[in-house]
C-alpha cells in the first residue's frame, strides 16, 4: 500500500516522519492533532513571507527615497516583481513537493529568502534590487508559501476551510507586528540595514518546515481509477495536464486574471498616496496596519464559514469582489486620513475573504489528486497581471500626476472579473460532483457525531 511519504505507488511525498498506524480511522487520518501542527507551521510561514509582501508600500517608499533618480513606475517593479515571481513559479513547489516532500521545499525556500534579503542590502542601484529582491527573494517566498498551502489537503478534509483560515491568519498578524518595526528601522538605520535584519527573520521559515517534517502524515486512501490516471500523467511529465481540460477551472482562472492587475495597487501605492495628500509619513505607514487589522478580524471566521454546508463559496467570493470594487472606486474622494484609514480597513477585511476563498474554490473545481497542480497553475497564471498592475498604476500617475484614474480603473476591472465568474458553474466538471458529495457526507457525519455526543451528555 502506498504511504504518504512517497513510494512509487502513491507518488505523494509530504514528510519523512513515521506513518500513522495501519488501522487508523478516517478521523485519525485527517483533521487530527498532528494536522494542527502543520496548520501552525503554515501560520508561521504566512507571518513572515506574506507579511513581508504586505509591506510593499513601505518598501516602495523607502526604495523611492533611496534611489532618487527612479520613477514610480520603475520603483514599483521591485515589489511587484517579487509578488509576481512568488506566484509565477508556483508549479515548481507543487512538482518538487510531490517528489521530495513539501517540508523540504519549505526549508529550502527559507534559505533562499534569507539569501535574497541579505544580498539586497548591498544593491548599488534599483536594477540589482530587481534581481536580489524581486527574483531571489520572490522565488524563495514562492517555495515556502505555496508548499505550506499545498500540503494542507493532505492533512485536512472536513475542516479544510478552518485550516486555511488559520494559516492565512498569519499574514495580517505578521503585518501588524512587522509594520511598526520595519517603519522604525527605515527611520533609524535606513534601507540596507533593514534588509539585513529581515534576512535573519526569514530563517524562522526553516523552523516551520522542520515542524511539518516531524508531523506524522496520514496514509492516503486507495486510489480510484481517476486517481490512477492522474498518477500516470504525473509519471510521464511530472505534471498532471488534465486539469486544463476542466472548463470550470479554466473559466475561474480567466476571471481571476482579470482582477489581479488591481490586487497589489493599494498595497504598493496607498502609503505614497497618503504622503502626497500631506499626511505624515509615520501615519501613512500605519495605513498598512489598518489593512492588517481588517484582515485579522475576518480570516479565521470566514474560513469556518466556508466550511458550512449551505455556503456557496463562489458566490461568497463574487460578493467580496463586488464590495471591493465599490470601495476602491471611491478612493479618489478620500481626501483625509480618516477616510483613507477606513478604506484600508475595509480593503483588508475583503482581501482576507478573497485569499481564503481561492484554495477552497479550486478544491471544489478539481479532484483531490489535482489540487496542488491546479492551485500552482492558478498562481502561475495570475502572476503576470498581478506583477504588471502596480507598475501600470505608477505609469498612470507619472502621466497624469494623480492616482484617481488608477483607482477608478481598478474598481471597474474588478466588476468585470465578478461578472465572468457567473460562467464558472456552467462549465464546472460534473465528474467532480461525486467527490464533493463525499466531502459533504464527511462534514455531515462529523456534525451528526457531535450532536449525538451532546445529546448523550444532556441525558446524563
UniProtKB/TrEMBL annotation:
Residues 247-460 form the Major facilitator superfamily (MFS) profile domain. Residues 1-15 have a biased composition (Basic and acidic residues). It is found in: Membrane. Pfam families: MFS_1. The keyword Transmembrane applies. One of its GO terms (molecular function) is transmembrane transporter activity. Gene3D superfamilies: MFS general substrate transporter like domains. This is Major facilitator superfamily (MFS) profile domain-containing protein. It is a multi-pass membrane protein. InterPro entries: MFS (IPR011701), MFS_dom (IPR020846), MFS_trans_sf (IPR036259), Proton-linked_MCT (IPR050327). It comes from the Eukaryota. It comes from Pocillopora damicornis (Cauliflower coral).
Amino acid at each position: 500500500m502506498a504511504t504518504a511519504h512517497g513510494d512509487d505507488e502513491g507518488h505523494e511525498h509530504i514528510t519523512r516522519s513515521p506513518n500513522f498506524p495501519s488501522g487508523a480511522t478516517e478521523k485519525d487520518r485527517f483533521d487530527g492533532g498532528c494536522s494542527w501542527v502543520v496548520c501552525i507551521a503554515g501560520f508561521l510561514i504566512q507571518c513572515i513571507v506574506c507579511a513581508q509582501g504586505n509591506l510593499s508600500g513601505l518598501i516602495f517608499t523607502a526604495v523611492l527615497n533611496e534611489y532618487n533618480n527612479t520613477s514610480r513606475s520603475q520603483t514599483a517593479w521591485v515589489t511587484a516583481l517579487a509578488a509576481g515571481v512568488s506566484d509565477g513559479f508556483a508549479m515548481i513547489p507543487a512538482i518538487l513537493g510531490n517528489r521530495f516532500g513539501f517540508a523540504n521545499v519549505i526549508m529550502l525556500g527559507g534559505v533562499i529568502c534569507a539569501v535574497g534579503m541579505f544580498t539586497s542590502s548591498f544593491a548599488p542601484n534599483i536594477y540589482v534590487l530587481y534581481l536580489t529582491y524581486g527574483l531571489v527573494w520572490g522565488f524563495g517566498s514562492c517555495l515556502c508559501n505555496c508548499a505550506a498551502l499545498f500540503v494542507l489537503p493532505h492533512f485536512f478534509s472536513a475542516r479544510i476551510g478552518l485550516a486555511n483560515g488559520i494559516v492565512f491568519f498569519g499574514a495580517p498578524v505578521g503585518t501588524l507586528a512587522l509594520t511598526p518595526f520595519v517603519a522604525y528601522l527605515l527611520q533609524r538605520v535606513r534601507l540596507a540595514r533593514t534588509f539585513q535584519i529581515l534576512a535573519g527573520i526569514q530563517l524562522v521559515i526553516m523552523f516551520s518546515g522542520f515542524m511539518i517534517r516531524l508531523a506524522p502524515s496520514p496514509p492516503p486512501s486507495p486510489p480510484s481509477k481517476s486517481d490512477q490516471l492522474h498518477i500516470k500523467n504525473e509519471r510521464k511529465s511530472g505534471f498532471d495536464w488534465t486539469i486544463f481540460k476542466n472548463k470550470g477551472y479554466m473559466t475561474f482562472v480567466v476571471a481571476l486574471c482579470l482582477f489581479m492587475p488591481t490586487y497589489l495597487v493599494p498595497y504598493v501605492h496607498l502609503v505614497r498616496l497618503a504622503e502626497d495628500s500631506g499626511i505624515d509619513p509615520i501615519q501613512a505607514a500605519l495605513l498598512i496596519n489598518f489593512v492588517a487589522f481588517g484582515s485579522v478580524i475576518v480570516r479565521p471566521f470566514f474560513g469556518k464559514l466556508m466550511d458550512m454546508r449551505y455556503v456557496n463559496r463562489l458566490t461568497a467570493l463574487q460578493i467580496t469582489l463586488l464590495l471591493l470594487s465599490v470601495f476602491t472606486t471611491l478612493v479618489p474622494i478620500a481626501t483625509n486620513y480618516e477616510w483613507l484609514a477606513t478604506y484600508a480597513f475595509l480593503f483588508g477585511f475583503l482581501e482576507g475573504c478573497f485569499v481564503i476563498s481561492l484554495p477552497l474554490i479550486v478544491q471544489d473545481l478539481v479532484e483531490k489528486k489535482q489540487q496542488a497542480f491546479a492551485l500552482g497553475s492558478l498562481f502561475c497564471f495570475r502572476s503576470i497581471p498581478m506583477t504588471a498592475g502596480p507598475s501600470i498604476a505608477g505609469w498612470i500617475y507619472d502621466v497624469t500626476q494623480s492616482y484617481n484614474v488608477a483607482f477608478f480603473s481598478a474598481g471597474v476591472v474588478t466588476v468585470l472579473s465578478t461578472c465572468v465568474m457567473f460562467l464558472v458553474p456552467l462549465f464546472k466538471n460534473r465528474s467532480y460532483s461525486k467527490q464533493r458529495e463525499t466531502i459533504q457526507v464527511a462534514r455531515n457525519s462529523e456534525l451528526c457525531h457531535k450532536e449525538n455526543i451532546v445529546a448523550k451528555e444532556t441525558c446524563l
